[in-house]
Amino acid sequence: MRRAGAGPLLLLSAALAAGQARAAGEPPLAAVTLVGGAETVFSAMRDACDGDDVPDAPARAFRDAEGGIVMFGLHTKNRALRGPDFARLRIDCTPAMPSKGDPDPAAYDDASWIAATWTEDGRRVEALVHHEYQANTHPGRCSRKEYLACWYNTVVAVSSRDGGRSFDRPEPPKVVAAAPFRQEVGQGRHRGFFNPSNIFGQGRSRYFLSSTTGWAGQEGGACLFRTSDPSDPSSWRAFDGTGFSLRFGDPYRDGAGTKPCRTIWPFPAPVGSVVRHRPSGAWIAVFQASANADLFPEAGFYTTSSRDLLTWDKPRLLLAGRTLYDDPCTSGGRLISYPSLIDPEAEGRNFDDVGASAQLYYATLRVDGCQITSDRDLQRRRVAIQVWP
């Protein structure tokens, strides 16, 4: 997540990129194809309650207990879009979970984005929060001045009992994924777990993917987490290469895990969303990538598919365009970011399944010179989905 006016999002080191550039496997299992023009769902310049309402995370939606749609994906006041259906979403100006800018890193309440939601009944909602401790904004907390050099990320859990209208921060905080060291360690680069995907399910299991820049012994990339009970944040476990055994706890209280999770190829950066194709059971992921000489000939949004969430096929370009992972000075005035796939006809309350078509939700961001501005739109485009036997 980025604030307006911040510099380029250079999350990936050369080592991370090299580690992800593995040989591609079988031909793609699925094809996702754009078949419709762009529609504006939310415009920050037109629809915002105030300057904090900008698209700044992938769109996450669920059906509430009355059958209405609730969608998150804005900035750190975490206001929701609500409506009777996807065509009539409007912003709710009451913040669901405002960030407090707390200078204590152990409070995990500096800058927070609701990044994933899960509900069984539309009333109680579990959420994963992308938390940024921005040490450069707190005097004496960072040896550097730059945002990225002081950026320490953690995934924490919160919950709502009123259909996502408000979220309670538990005390002590419930840490789902943290680096095995505190924020003052390793300053000079972006550190931690960040940008969780949506929560998606199969049977009794629930999953999400979270990115990490890695540390000594831990490769950078995306790690897969699983639980059978999202209401218990301590039950999330990361995949270690053979099973889901790793707990990445709170380094300020109970210690974080030190064994590495296995990163999942081919994701070079945060995963926008993962959905299950209803007719075939195949999984489809969408994400953004900058161009490189290996898997990504053009910058833009890519899709990949899998039968088991562990082995994914060669990424396919869905929408070309400069993204937040590219230099905004060469953007041509506009960037795209934060892709997610949502099927309005999904069978599940959490929109983690798709049929023969879906909507690609994403943000467009206007660039002024080299600065990313608050002039942002949440857009959607219809896609067709085909999966081969």
From TrEMBL:
Keywords: Signal. The keyword Signal applies. The keyword Signal applies. It comes from the Bacteria. Residues 1-23 form the signal peptide. This is Exo-alpha-sialidase. It comes from Enterovirga aerilata.
